[in-house]
Amino acid sequence: MMPRPGSVRRLPGGRLRRLAQRLCSPETLEHVVDPTLADLQHEWNEAAGRSGLARGCVCLAGYAAFVKALTLHMLMTACRHLAGNAFGATPEERAFYGRAGSATAAAVLVQTAIMMVTSTGMGVRSLVYALTHQRWPGGPSEAESLPRALAIAFRPDLLASLLPSVVVLVLPTSLLFGLLVAARKSSPDGASIRPQARWVAGASLLLTTAAIPVTGWVMPVANQNYREIVVAELYRTDRKANVPAKGLRELTFGELGDAIRTEQGSSDRYLAPYRRTERHKRVALPAACAAFGLLAIGLAGRMRARGALVVGLTVMVAAFPYYFLLRIGEQVLMPRGTAPFLCAWVANLVVAGAAAILIVSSRSREGTEAEVSSAAP
Amino acid sequence: MTRASRLPTLSGKETVILELLLDGHEMYGLELVGTSRKRLKRGTVYVTLQRMEAKGYVQSRTEADSGEPGLPRRLYKATAAGRRLYDLWTMVRTKLQLEIA
Known about the structure:
The complex is a heterodimer. Chain A contains 11 helices and no strands. By secondary structure, chain A is an all-alpha fold. Chain B has 4 helices and 2 strands. Chain B is elongated, with a radius of gyration of 15 Å. Chains A and B meet through helix 2 and helix 3 of A and helix 3 of B.
């Protein structure tokens, strides 16, 4: 469906359509994107005589519908792709998903192992500190506490409780690594093929959807489990007899919502911004997969001729600012009264923004190269 | 059971859309949402319509130039197969409800 000449630029949705043109198939553009934006633009025209606020509301409703329609469509497309043969995935797509899946899984394993060793080491240090600070005349020294701290930190149930938090944290960067590795060489005969944006977007969205129950429900339960085991071991008590109170990270999504609602009616609202930020984070962490998926689309073209080491280094370079911004959001923006949404989402927004810039620049570079090659004799 | 031999079914949203398009005239997505009395949502209507078009229950065309600026709207109408499936579906549902009651 072609826009009427000279008309789209003045109306809302023009930029969204150009972005969708880069990400979606022509069929999606024709049947989902264009009709949704057409409705928005016609509603906008009809609201011409109304106040700015009313037109703003029209815009907002239209944009919300657009985002919802596109997300829903991409999720369905991702499911169809994952279903493979049954829904007629091409050999190229299957090869791409096979490589991306195995490389992502390998990156998850390696990064999880590194993070587990680091977290356990930090855990041992904290345990030694806790054990020696229970000191009384003739109490244990640091050297005496170390074997007990090691025994607690390497308990299999304690390590298992650490896993969900670690996996959620390493998932976005692992996905980026997997997608970039798959983008380098994907066809069954070993030739290089270009991954289509919708495959990458579909896989990222699917991973995001799968990670939300983990951050919302599995991770808080595991965190509480971890605290209970540590307290029981430190005080040598029965685990159920001395249950520590839940902190923010131990509250499930539903419990956080309940706490926020209860707090709204009370005068003591000190914890409100912390709880709201934590609730946003439970969605923002899985959504990082989508942001890193976008980054993979932007970087894929530049990574095609590079080795695995360069890909790994690129992922590390991309991961560092992400983790840094996560901490900034929590420890710098939060205490200064910044909106909870921004504190939790700042890292994702920066990654997605960088991805958008990369996508646009790589598309314009390809356009220039195509023009040059077509002009060549 | 293979996909091809599966019985055609209608979801709740598909039933509402066919019900609204039953009289044969064409409607665009937002119009369907407006007349559905909150049974259809703006964010999902076009995804559902696309799926229905792929199944052959509705057909669509781009609106002729109305002179208004902006993208042309997409108009949908029920196909004969869609109308027949809706009739059969409603009949079976009514019969089942009577049997169960």
